[in-house]
Design brief:
By secondary structure, this protein is α+β, with helices and mostly antiparallel strands. It has a domain of 113 residues: Chitinase A, domain 3. It is 28% helix and 26% strand. It is built from three helices and six strands; from the N terminus they run ααββββαββ. Strands 1-2-5-6-3-4 form a six-stranded antiparallel beta sheet, with helices on one face. It is elongated, with a radius of gyration of 30 Å. It is an enzyme of class 5 (isomerase).
Length: 177
Amino acid sequence: MKNLFIIVIILITFFSCKSPEARVPVSVKSGSFLKESAERNKKLNALEEKKIQSIMQNNPEHDYIASENGFWYFYTSKVEADTLQPQFGDIIDFDFNVSNLEGSEIYASENKTYVMDKEELFTGLREGLKLMKPTESVTFIFPSQIAYGYYGDDNKIGTNVPLICEVTLNTIIENND
């Protein structure tokens, strides 16, 4: 009887052990939100580009240049000499106006001192300043995704607003570090 009891316990122990099974997830995320967001952004970008192309076609007197960073610009005042351009850490002084694509002024002429790539400045303007030389004036057209994007500036620039910025680079003080 004692042997039978031990055999039963061994058999129960042997047959009761099995490998763990994965549980079925409670909910499955499909990623549809990201797909919908991407589609919405593609439509927004296409609409903004259409408006920007219309502005450029309606102003043939300006020689618009497409940048590698996704914005367009033309020179109001161009320096032909091969001079200094802003580099990382340089201190630059510039004046700028900001308006929407309809031409309504958002910020009147402001003067700003900026340490290149070390301070906050929206992507489009930061990249645009790198193309400029002292005393040049350039008008930039920035799609919203490289301007203030979805959040705006929490002041006068709202959600997804493409911008026109007229910029004059006054001076560059080179970083000697």
